[in-house]
Amino acid sequence: MSLGQELQGDVVLLTGMSGGGKSVAMHALEDAGYFCVDNLPAELLLDFLKLEAQRGERRVAIAVDVRSADSLPLMLPLLKELRAGGVQVRSIFLDASDEALMRRFSETRRPHPLRQGRDTGSGSLGGAAEDSHRLLLDAIQLERELMSGLKAESTVIDTSQLRPAQLRAWLADLVGPDASSKLTLVFESFAFKRGVPSDADFVFDVRVLPNPYYDRELRPLTGRDAPVAAYLAAQPEVGMMMGQIAGFLSRWLPNFAADQRSYLTVAIGCTGGQHRSVYLVEMLSRQFGHHGHVLKRHRELDAR
């Protein structure tokens, strides 16, 4: 009997950038009933999973990051070997922008794992600060190179602008009971003024559509409110845009599923992420509900 047949529970491999939110994510997985192991060396992964198979049905989450840099090259071949052997491993990569990571390290005053022992400690106060900033940025860039292979094999969540509560909620959706679908389809609204989500596979710009913001009564509402929805539903351009996005996805979703993609994020942006993009995400997630595992996210609204 193969390991894939012996293992009865879910296996989540949690990885990503240092400062990307792995501690929050591990707590969320633990609350969801997963047995969590942090920083497991790749050399122990197979033995650990075999032991879990003997113990019976249990959901397992394993966190792997650059703290085990020496064994990282082994992890990607092991991940592919496990999947080829029938083990359903869901790999999740927590990413964030360089600016967000540097801000988090500055706020917590914790050293980056790849930077320890490399501070110069010399020069003027201003020069030392500049050196520290440069060393941190260099460490982040090196980590991106080391983690690039795992990222390519994982579902990516951009945590740059997420509050801990948002990350916990998004992760709960991702590993929920419906997550066994071969392809998880995510619709996400966002505001262009706050940047495009880095984990988006497709980005649609709907700023060309009529904007309810300029209606005084609709301005404080959102695309989830009936008056805004009625206003947008009455605009021919909105229907045309939604139909074209839906047509594109309907045509190509089977190809992405056949390519063994596990996750596809469709990001829809408007100026403020409150009206047009929210409405389209609500409507499209409803329209594609038959697809299987469909999630909807409103980056700006969820942050309130």
Arithmetic mean pLDDT: 86
In one word, what is the shape? globular
Number of H/I helices: 11
Content-based structural category:
alpha/beta
Strand order of the largest sheet: 2-3-1-4-5
Q: Tell me what portion of residues adopts beta-strand conformation.
A: 15-25%
Q: Describe the sheet with the most strands.
A: 5 strands, parallel
Work out the number of β strands: 9
Low-pLDDT stretches: 120-125
User: What is the helix fraction of residues, given as a range?
Assistant: 40-55%
Q: What is the succession of H and E elements?
A: HEHEHEHEHHEHEEHHEHEH
Radius of gyration: 22 Å
How far apart are the termini? Answer: 50 Å
Output the keywords:
304 residues, alpha/beta, five-stranded parallel beta sheet, four-stranded parallel beta sheet, 9 strands, globular
Blueprint (SSEs and pairs):
Blueprint: H1 3-6, E1 11-16, H2 22-31, E2 35-38, H3 45-55, E3 60-63, H4 72-84, E4 89-95, H5 98-108, H6 125-152, E5 155-158, H7 164-174, E6 184-191, E7 202-205, H8 226-233, H9 236-258, E8 263-270, H10 276-287, E9 293-298, H11 299-302
Parallel strand pairs: 1-3, 1-4, 2-3, 4-5, 6-8, 6-9, 7-8
Task: Characterise this structure.
With 304 residues, the chain is of the alpha/beta class. 44% of the residues lie in helices and 17% in strands. The chain has 11 helices and 9 strands. The strands form 2 sheets. A 5-stranded parallel sheet has the order 2-3-1-4-5, sandwiched between helices. It has a 4-stranded parallel sheet with strand order 7-8-6-9, with helices on both faces. Helix 2 crosses helix 7 (164-174). 34% of the residues are buried.
